[in-house]
Amino acid sequence: MEIQVPPGASLTKEQRTEMAKGFEFLGLMAEGGRARKRKGLPLVVPKVEVPKLLRGCGRAPTAADLKELMTKVPNEGIQLEDFLSLYETAAEKPLLNEYQLFDALRTLDLTKTDTLEPKGLKEILHGFGDAVTFGEVDKILSGLPRDGLGRVKCKDIARKLMKGPSDIPHL
User: Which PANTHER family does this chain map to (predicted)?
Assistant: First the structure.
């Protein structure tokens, strides 16, 4: 789910509630999370999980943007209100929409069929900018239908990328 926040605006009450669900899930799964909740202490999402939570809420920061955002996260992790503030900061940068991503993927298709060969896509994504591992590309492509030549539709890739990770419930 993409949580959209216009530049300079704050999250709505409904958005905060939805984000709190994903935050709570990761906070409870963290080491000592359940004990913190039993003691009435606020949940803390470990610093290493913050990028996953940002992506689960619809943000896809570049490595440089993520590095800058992560300087605001304490080493021991982040509490909900601080995460919501961090998300609002991350939301100041516009995201690609599904059509823009589809259009960018189409430019990689030399056959003009709006499809990509998975091996070629792996090499491209692994070799440029914020390099993606081959395993991550496999995860992106898993479950997507292939045509008779084993190619995947650019539209399907864009749609899956825009959905974000599927391993954070409620988002």
Answer: CALMODULIN LIKE 3, MYOSIN LIGHT CHAIN 1, 3
Nearest to 144 by CA among 156, 155, 162: 156
Contact between 25 and 170 under an 8 Å Cβ cutoff? The reply is yes
pTM over 0.85: no
On whether the CB atoms of residues 61 and 54 are closer than 8 A, the answer is: yes
Residue 164 near residue 55 (C-beta atoms within 8 A): yes
Q: Which helix (H) or strand (E) holds 155?
A: helix 154-163
State the Cα–Cα distance between residues 139 and 146, nearest whole angstrom. Answer: 15
Element (H, E) at 161: helix 154-163
Mean pLDDT of 64-71: 92
H/E run at residue 115: strand 115-116
Domains of the chain, CATH where assigned: 13-90 (1.10.238.10), 98-163 (1.10.238.10)
**Which ranges of 13-153 does DSSP label H, i.e. alpha helix?**
13-29, 33-38, 50-56, 63-70, 80-90, 98-106, 118-127, 134-141
